[in-house]
Write a structure and sequence with these properties.
- By secondary structure, this protein is of the alpha+beta class.
- The protein has 4 domains: 5-52, no CATH class; 64-94 and 131-162 and 267-330, Nucleotidyltransferase, domain 5 (2-Layer Sandwich); 180-260, no CATH class; 334-350 and 358-421, Roll (SH3 type barrels), CATH 2.30.30.
- Helix content is 25%, strand content 23%.
- It is built from 11 helices and 21 strands.
- The protein has helices at residues 26-36, 96-107, 130-149, 164-168, 188-195, 241-244, 249-260, 265-280, 289-299, 305-312, 434-437, and strands spanning 5-8, 13-15, 40-45, 48-52, 64-68, 73-80, 83-91, 154-159, 212-216, 231-235, 285-288, 324-330, 363-364, 367-368, 372-374, 380-387, 391-395, 401-402, 411-412, 417-420, 425-431.
- It has a 7-stranded mixed β-sheet. Strands 15, 16, 17, 18, 19 and 20 form a 6-stranded antiparallel β-sheet that branches. Strands 2-1-4-3 form a 4-stranded antiparallel β-sheet, with helices on one face.
- Helix 9 crosses helix 10 (305-312).
Length: 438
């Protein structure tokens, strides 16, 4: 007896042996009847997957997986012949700014003496910063999850390759790649001062102040870098607290400079990701964004991550489209900071004594953080936190709190109904209108 796995959603059944049913309303009914008759068993709940317990025909059809890799958004799609069977978009939530602010705060406080560690200076081969490594693992892990359901599908991945020197200086050639912006200068400050002709960029030398400072256009606390394009020269007279405020001269100049500032973080990440994907999936077919743009225009699809993934899969004609897109968004269950910079909601003072009893409460009365629940009036959302032992907060897919009354956001656990446990991922199904897929 042979078995095969079938992944079932509202719109499709996907067999692991690559045998597909048509997308119709009877798909969920067929799945339910197989389970009730004991001819299949449940393997996974997210995505819902069953395994047949009886022999089947050997008919198979070609299946392709399309992957739109990226830094913040990942698009995944499964296509077969002229049908789109599955579309997914995954968002990676960024929490590193908060951690960085807490880490900087610890350096300025009077803390206990900690002897220096000298055995953690050597990095292994292929080491990447945790922020970059986490995003790369997201791309690789989600591709492997789709492959686990369809292990013999043809894999198509879009990658990006960027010439960052040409992005900063379009006419760069030959020796210019070796001689960067700061070639011939000893320090970055010396280059910025010479570039700005040793003149304040606000008053243009009218104040006659000899003291010049180097200022960040986008502060490092807001994601700015030390690139020379993010630095400018200002004098001490203009570099005041008043000019930093909205309406001040420096504030207006920074807003104008911000529009022309181009960060290269995304391009750097995509260059790193491309090499890692080559190594992780040597059997895959790779292409670049320029080709995807042309192919998407032939299919008459609007710009979207899931539409890009459908195009990348290599499908030539779309006769049957899904009516919904599944969205996965990572949810942070545990608050890892030992202290707080600002007081949490509902508290008057911040927690600076490392009290972690109520802060990391994960469950209460059979309910867990991030559970998908339903209110008595039919509203659905995710448990975002607990208030005491019998109450919690519930957020909808758009991030707003659900409430029984207009002012009271605390909801009693006794009136909630658990639809499913979601662990660390928010799963939302978004309806796609016809004009968005056509």
């Amino acid at each position: 007896m042979t078995t095969k796995e079938e992944s079932c959603s509202k719109c499709a059944h996907i067999y692991k042996s690559f045998e597909f049913f048509k997308l119709n309303r009877n798909s969920s009914q067929k799945c339910r009847k197989l389970l009730q008759a004991g001819r299949a068993k449940v393997i996974k709940k997210e995505p819902f997957t069953i395994q047949l317990l009886f022999s089947s025909t050997g008919y198979k059809q070609h299946v392709s997986i399309g992957v739109d890799s990226g830094q913040h958004h990942i698009g995944l799609a499964v296509t077969s012949q002229d049908k789109v069977l599955f579309s997914l978009r995954q968002d990676v939530k960024k929490l590193l700014d908060t951690r960085r602010s807490y880490r900087r705060g610890r350096r300025n406080r009077n803390t206990r003496y900690r002897s220096p560690c000298f055995l953690n200076r050597t990095k292994p081969s292929g080491w990447l910063p945790p922020s970059i490594a986490s995003k790369i693992h997201h791309n690789i892990n989600w591709i492997q999850r789709i492959q686990a359901v369809m292990p013999k599908a043809e894999l198509h991945i879009e990658v990006g390759k960027f010439d960052m020197a040409k992005m900063k200086q379009p006419d760069i050639t030959g020796l210019g790649y070796q001689q960067g912006d700061k070639y011939g200068y000893e320090t970055t400050k010396q280059y910025v001062l010479d570039r700005d002709n040793y003149t304040c960029q606000i008053c243009h030398g009218k104040t006659k102040d000899p003291e010049l400072k180097i200022h960040h256009i986008i502060y490092r606390s807001n994601g700015g870098t030390n690139q020379v394009s993010n630095l400018l020269t200002v004098c001490a007279t203009c570099h005041t607290q008043a000019n930093h405020q909205p309406g001040g001269k420096l504030y207006a100049l920074l807003a104008k400079k911000f529009q022309s500032y181009r960060s290269l973080k995304g391009a750097t990440f995509m260059n790193i990701l491309r090499r890692r994907l080559f190594k992780a999936f040597p059997e895959a077919k790779f292409q670049y964004g320029a080709q995807t743009t042309l192919d998407r225009a032939k299919l008459d699809l609007p710009k979207a991550h899931y539409n890009d993934a459908v195009t990348i899969s290599g499908i030539q004609k779309i006769a049957q489209r899904p009516t919904a897109v599944v969205m996965f968004h990572q949810f942070r269950k545990k608050k890892c900071s030992l202290h707080e910079a600002t007081a949490r909601k509902g508290r008057k003072i911040p927690n600076i004594m490392s009290k972690r009893n109520a802060k990391n409460k994960k469950f209460s009365k059979g309910f867990y953080l991030n559970d998908y629940v339903q209110l008595p009036d039919g509203q659905k959302g995710n448990v975002s936190g607990f208030s005491g032992k019998i109450k919690c907060f519930v957020k909808a897919g758009d991030g707003y709190y659900l409430a029984i009354s207009s002012k009271y956001k605390h909801i009693n656990l006794s009136i909630l109904k658990v639809i499913r446990h979601q662990n660390n991922w928010n799963v939302t199904e978004i309806e796609v209108k016809t004009h968005q897929m056509a």
